[in-house]
Amino acid sequence: MCDAPIGVFDSGIGGLTVLREIRTLVPQETLFYVSDSGHVPYGEKSPEYIRERCRFIASFLLERGAKALVLACNTATVAGVGELRTLYPQLPIVAMEPAVKPAAAATRSGVVGVLATTGTLKSARFAALLDQFASDVRVVTQPCPGLVELIEAGDLHDPALLALLRGYVEPLLAEGCDTLILGCTHYPFLRPLLEQWLDPSISLIDTGAAVARQLQRLLASRNLLANGPRGVDRFWCSGEPAAMQRVLPLLWGSAEPVAVLPGN
């Protein structure tokens, strides 16, 4: 069981930002990744639609022996993690949430900006995070429709992507934000773009590394950390495999075969 794979999934390729953090922290682990790109973006879908996708993908990964699940998607976490934890009470399940607590601690101006999907920003979970950790700061939110789709296309130098990103970020800066939460797992891929034109005093915060640490803690507490040679990482998608294969060298760091998610 220790050498069984870890199952990770997202609405698309954004979860690769989390997968990279997991690989760095626990390099001995075998990783199985599902991109639900045939149903991207989750941010504009209904909660029940997203829960159905979470159930389907979780079942797929567990059938292939996953010893733990990582919901590498803020929107999937909001809609589906509660149900998955009810369905699989003994399974280590790690999920995402916008990094409100570290952002509130980091801000000097007292104003934090949040870039996220519409679904995340409208959720009760996000509201609870604000109540718990952001009572002493002002939080300015910015839904970002269209951003995930452009990132999925894999051209991070597309002028349309930069224009859309600027249109979302500049109002937050005008409000005095000195700290920006990248509240979707796709958005850390934009960090190099942001750093090119943002003032160095602007802090960019995401939760990928924290998710990897929580996964490591959970596996260690249950004696599930791998101790043998790593197996073969595997990738599936519910969209067009060739599209994901094109972006994997850029976003994951190596070319990998991508299989079609059965019954997607």
Specify the overall morphology. Answer: globular
Summed up, the helix count is 11
| CATH architecture annotation name of the largest domain | 3-Layer(aba) Sandwich
Strand content: 15-25%
Mean of residue pLDDT values: 93
The main β sheet shows up as: 6 strands, parallel
Strand order of the largest sheet: 4-3-1-2-9-10
Low-confidence stretches: none
Q: Supply the number of structural domains.
A: 2
CATH class of the largest domain: Alpha Beta
Structural notes for this entry:
By secondary structure, this protein is α/β, with parallel strands linked by helices. It folds into 2 domains: 6-96 and 209-260, Rossmann fold, CATH 3.40.50.1860; 100-206, 3-Layer(aba) Sandwich (Rossmann fold), CATH 3.40.50.1860. Helices cover 44% and strands 16% of the residues. It has helices spanning 16-25, 47-63, 74-87, 100-106, 118-121, 124-133, 147-152, 159-174, 191-197, 208-221, 241-251, and strands at residues 6-10, 31-35, 68-71, 93-95, 111-116, 138-143, 179-182, 203-205, 234-237, 258-260. The strands form 2 sheets. A 6-stranded parallel beta sheet has the order 4-3-1-2-9-10, sandwiched between helices. Strands 6-5-7-8 form a 4-stranded parallel beta sheet, with helices on both faces. Helix 1 (16-25) crosses helix 10 and helix 2 crosses helix 3. The longest helix is centred in the N-terminal third of the chain and has 17 residues, at 47-63.
Short description:
The chain is 44% helix and 16% strand. It is an alpha/beta fold and 264 residues long. The protein folds into 2 domains: 6-96 and 209-260, Rossmann fold; 100-206, Rossmann fold (3-Layer(aba) Sandwich), CATH 3.40.50.1860.
